[in-house]
Write a structure and sequence with these properties.
Elements: E1 10-11, H1 13-20, H2 24-32, E2 39-40, E3 46-49, H3 51-64, H4 69-77, H5 87-121, H6 154-157
Antiparallel strand pairs: 1-3, 2-3
C-alpha cells in the first residue's frame, strides 16, 4: 500500500483509491451521493482531504453490515466538515444501527424458518403460502382480478 508523506494534505483520486482499497468509480459514486467531498484544482482535478481516507473506511464498514447509503450519509452529515470520524463517533452510530441490524436478523431468521416449512410442505400455494403471499389481508375476502378497479363502458360513463 503506497504511503503518503505527512506533508501532503490532499490526495488525488488515484491515491485515495490506492490507500482506501475502493475503486475510483466507487469514490466518484460516494462523492455523487454526498458521502465524501473534494475540491477541484484549476485543472479541474479532484483533490480529497486526508480525512476522506477514514470517511471511506467508515462508509465501507457500514455497507458491509448492510447499512443503506442514505443512512450512512445522514450519519456523516452529523459530523463537522473535514473532521475524521472518531472511535466515539463510530460507537455512537453503531449503537443506533445495532437495533436496526437486530431487527433484520430476526426477519432473516423468520424467513429461514418459513422457507424450511415451505420446502417441507411442498404446496407453494399462492393463496396460503407465507412466502408467496405474506400477510395477505385481501385474500381472505376475495382473490386476484376482483381487486382491480372495475371499468365501465364509455357509454355508461357519459
Amino acid at each position: 500500500m503506497p504511503q503518503i508523506p505527512e506533508k501532503i494534505h490532499e490526495l488525488t483520486v488515484g491515491q485515495l483509491s490506492a490507500r482506501s482499497g475502493a475503486a475510483v468509480s466507487a469514490l466518484h459514486f460516494y462523492e455523487a451521493k454526498g458521502l465524501i467531498s473534494s475540491r477541484r484544482t484549476t485543472g479541474n482535478q479532484r483533490r480529497y482531504g486526508r480525512d476522506a481516507l477514514r470517511r471511506v473506511a467508515f462508509v465501507r464498514a457500514a455497507q458491509r453490515v448492510g447499512i443503506p447509503l442514505a443512512t450512512i450519509r445522514e450519519a456523516l452529515a452529523q459530523l463537522p466538515e473535514e473532521r475524521t470520524p472518531t472511535n466515539e463517533d463510530w460507537a455512537r452510530l453503531s449503537a443506533t444501527w445495532r437495533t436496526e441490524l437486530d431487527e433484520r436478523i430476526k426477519q432473516l431468521g423468520r424467513l429461514r424458518d418459513h422457507l424450511t416449512d415451505c420446502i417441507g410442505c411442498g404446496c407453494l400455494s399462492l393463496e396460503t403460502c407465507v412466502l408467496s403471499n405474506p400477510d395477505d389481508a385481501f385474500g381472505a375476502r376475495m382473490a386476484g382480478s376482483r381487486l382491480l378497479p372495475v371499468r365501465r363502458p364509455a357509454a355508461e360513463e357519459g
